[in-house]
Amino acid sequence: MSRSQCARCLRPQTHCLCPLIPSLDSRTRVLLLQHPSEVNHALNTARLAALGLNNAELIVGEVFEDLPQRLNQPGYQARLLFPADDAQPLQVYAPSDQPLLLVVPDGTWRKARKILHLNPLLAALPRVTLAEGAVSRYRLRKAPGPGALSTVEAIVQALQVLEAPTSFELLLKPFEALIEGQIAAMGEETYQRNHGG
Q: Tens of pLDDT along 36-64?
């Protein structure tokens, strides 16, 4: 017997996050390019970000045929949020006269790199990066390194820089509820054994 699912947040109806998802405005346009393997992931944080931001769009795929049109948004300068040696810190753009179209690949690091490889136009975009040393609230996985954030956390951090003093912390409310729910489902003892200090 399958559990009924919320059509909006894709969570089981009994664990729907919609009441916690805000409706936030931003000057920055966020384009999330999600690898198909992430769509049914229990912690689909890119979807939470797209639902919570009025100026965001989530597209699922590996190759994006309409990328030239999507990147050429009048009034926006497109930047890829992805590490690189020549990536500029987001502080360079804040506050900017021209808002950014922030392109965010969503998937494991390997899958995100594959999206870039399959879409040369994307790989050619100027890259921006977050400040170093951010600590993830994603307590259910071992981060591959310092500063490794979930997609929604990276977007919140980017918007906090680009649109200061506006706060985007409300975007993290459904994410934190999701984490708490996962911990509750596995039980405190299991959580401590697998993820505790």
A: 999 887 778 999 999 999 999 999 999 99
If one counts every other C-beta atom within 10 angstroms of the C-beta of residue 115, the result is 21
Rounded to 10°, the helix 151-162/45-52 angle is 40
Quickly name the fold that domain 23-129+147-187 has. Answer: Alpha/beta knot (3.40.1280)
- Return the SS3 of 56: strand
DSSP string, 137-182: --TTS--SSTT---HHHHHHHHHHHHTTTS--GGGHHHHHHHHHHH
pLDDT tens digits for range 173-193: 999 988 887 777 766 665 555
Using DSSP's 3-state secondary structure scheme, residue 191 falls into: helix
Q: For the whole prediction, is pTM greater than 0.70?
A: yes
Quote the tokens at residue 140: 């259910």
